[in-house]
Design brief:
This protein has 383 residues and is α+β, with helices and mostly antiparallel strands. The chain has one domain: 4-Layer Sandwich (L-amino peptidase D-ALA esterase/amidase). The protein has eight helices and 14 strands. Helix 2 crosses helix 3 and helix 5 (268-276) packs across helix 7.
């Protein structure tokens, strides 16, 4: 078993290392969700055992990823948030309260489908035993999932509270590990090994220099639909060239979770509109929101802190917001960062063999460079 700390980066190059540059806006210094000031991410990665599946024993290819929305106490200093569901065969807890109140009041957890409950409970117990951010003795944590049962003993319930706590303790800012880490450990994307990916965008000065960061847990998509910067990579590197796992779930299954962070001052309905635009980045890479896919997106803004402060003498709180006419650039940034985050997940993830010898093969980066160069994109192979 391994518990992979945040600082342990992926050994494979990212999209930009290969000359693949998505869109027109520039990324932040780390090209990660942590480019939004105060956002921290932590992973616990669980990998143990090989061979035949024995429920309760393994093989295990799973984990948990946590996201802190800012450097303060999110329980007593919530942020505005909004969500969007492209296709709803999935779960993200806490969305009813976010839809009602428009506020995110907990860290965010990402894990496998059958570990949502333990991660949710562990977020509460961590707060209660580590100085409590829980308001009024109750909490409705946000925890999302994708299915890793093609590679991992998903019914063995291997994610435990101490793994969630370790991810929370490890959470930090800066560059992030991607691919086969945390909640993305056992995930598959467009028939290649998938997992965690991240990217960011910074708007130019004339548009406010606002930052947008995206983190995805990518476990979706069919091979023939995969496109990278418009290039039909899935047709060029098809299932004959690189097979999908032999235990791959039927066509039309698979999910993606997208978390969007911004420092732009937004209201809850504007956050919801930001979350919707993750759909565009997914579509550009070939995702279509299939019938059995769980495509659930959450956006939050750190631009209005102090929402739980006492009201002023007139009984009101002061908040800031961008005019709706200023949102289009943020929409574009979300689409770009989501697209690149998915590609980064594919680039970072390495080949993994799981239960019963089922293998998810990595996207072959040398072949990817050859294909991109043939279409006039990226850096030529060997360049």
């Amino acid at each position: 078993m391994t518990e992979q700390p945040l600082s342990q980066g992926a050994s494979r190059p990212r999209a930009r290392d290969l000359g693949i540059q998505i869109g027109r806006f520039e990324p932040g210094p780390w090209n990660a969700i942590t480019d939004v000031a105060g956002v921290r991410v932590g992973h616990t990665t669980l990998i143990t055992g090989d061979g035949p599946l024995v429920v309760g024993q393994g093989p295990v290819r799973t984990g948990v990823t946590v996201i802190y929305p800012h450097a303060g106490n999110i329980g007593t200093d919530p942020v505005y948030a909004g969500s969007h569901v492209l296709n709803g065969n999935g779960e993200m807890t806490g969305l009813l309260w976010i839809g009602e109140a428009g506020k995110l009041t907990t860290p965010i957890g990402l894990t496998n489908t059958h570990s949502v409950g333990v991660v949710r409970d562990a977020l509460i117990s961590y707060d209660l035993q580590r100085g409590s951010t829980v308001q009024s003795a109750w909490s409705l944590p946000v925890v999302a999932e994708t299915f890793d049962g093609v590679l991992s003993d998903i019914n063995g319930m291997h994610v435990r509270p101490e793994h969630v706590w370790a991810a929370l303790d490890a959470a930090s800012t800066g560059p992030l590990a991607e691919g086969c880490v945390g909640g993305g450990t056992g995930m598959i994307c467009h028939g290649f090994k998938g997992g965690i990916g991240t990217a960011s965008r910074v708007l130019p000065a004339e548009r406010g220099t606002w930052k947008v960061g995206v983190l995805v847990q990518a476990n979706h998509g069919q091979r023939h639909l995969l496109r990278i910067d418009g290039v039909p990579v899935g047709r060029e590197i098809d299932l004959q060239a690189v097979p999908r796992p032999m235990l791959q779930a039927p066509s039309g299954t698979g999910s993606i979770i997208v978390i969007v962070a911004t420092d732009a001052p937004l209201l809850p309905i504007q956050c919801r509109r930001l979350a919707q635009r993750a759909t565009i980045g997914i579509a550009r890479t070939g995702g279509v929101g299939e019938n059995s896919s769980g495509d659930i997106f959450l956006a939050f803004s750190t631009g209005n802190r102090g929402l739980a402060d006492p009201p002023g003498p007139d009984g009101t709180l002061s908040v800031r917001t961008l005019p709706d006419d200023a949102l289009s650039s943020l929409f574009e940034a979300v689409a770009e960062a989501t697209e690149e985050a998915i590609i980064n997940a594919l680039c970072a993830a390495a080949t993994m063999t799981g239960i019963n010898g089922s293998t998810a093969y990595e996207l072959p980066l040398d072949r990817l460079q050859e294909v991109m160069a043939r279409y006039g994109c990226g850096t030529p192979f060997g360049g």
